[in-house]
User: What shape does this take?
Amino acid sequence: MSKLKVLVARAVFPEVIAKLEQHFDVTSNPADEPWSRAQLIGKMQGMTGVFTTGAERIDKELLAECPQLKICANMAVGYNNFDVDAMTAQGVLATNAPDVLTETTADFGFALLMATARRMTESEHYLRAGKWQRWSYDMFAGSDVHGATLGILGMGRIGQGIARRGAYGFGMKVIYHNRSRLDAATEGACKAAYVSKEELLKTSDHLVLVLPYSASSHHAIGAAEIAQMKPSANLINIARGGIVDDAALAAALRDRRIAGAGLDVFEGEPKVHPDLLTLPNVVLTPHIASATLPTRLAMANLAADNLIGFLTQGKPLTPLNPAVLTARP
Ligand code: DGY
Assistant: This one.
């Protein structure tokens, strides 16, 4: 019997491709060529499964062109590149890669918070430029992390990881806002108190965004929200571009309406709002919160195992639309 066809849209670990090849006829992209959407649709013809990395948009229009498709496995916990409703309607399973990146991403969120609060990249640029001639009492004075109020918007697994780091490692007072309040045991384990979004904006010294992107979280932080923050506050976004109105944030940073920002994600990335690039009080990183090799390997393996589990036994590990499983003949 001929093997099912699977497409891997971007270059990934060779050992993960080799694992997929044990089960499927795999078309991969080892040169990591940037496929246009039309090329992606062309490559997906006849494919039963596709391994995506979070950038490939799987929507109604694409699905209509790929009637043979049965599963899209994202190598990312976020899946705003998937129209899950359209996939469910067409009987296509969607899977993501949760859990395996939680601690690594929480580490990075905390690192970005600290780099922003303590003005690390700004002061490094100053040093590298040969401008450091002498000590002064307020040179690159930043804000304290220990004992400060840590606000978290979006209290899923990664948000909880950041809360634990703040509460246990740095003695921070942790407050959070989420679509739904956590149970008392989880709040206790994170030493986190639930507050309204308004309270979160007004009282956080460091506000970290970890909520999923959707139409309802688009520009969840815009000019009106930033206006409610303390002038001394820092805003950290490791969630998704589009959750923050980057133009409004750049204006606020320029006018020192808040102290600083740490951004790993951007509206329209890999493009970055040009004003952000000129500002000293923002730390910018290229969407690397989950980027350690062990974690990226675990994410790639989970996406591959979802393809293998579903296509060989009907048992994916982390389905997003399990209704597709029960609807199968
Ligand atoms: C995720 O997994 O969603 C991270 O943002 C990496 O893309």
Remarks:
- The first strand starts at residue 5 and ends at 8.
- The pocket of (2R)-2,3-dihydroxypropanoic acid is lined by residues 54, 76-78, 101, 290 (CB under 6 Å).
- The domain at 5-99+293-327 is CATH 3.40.50.720 (Rossmann fold).
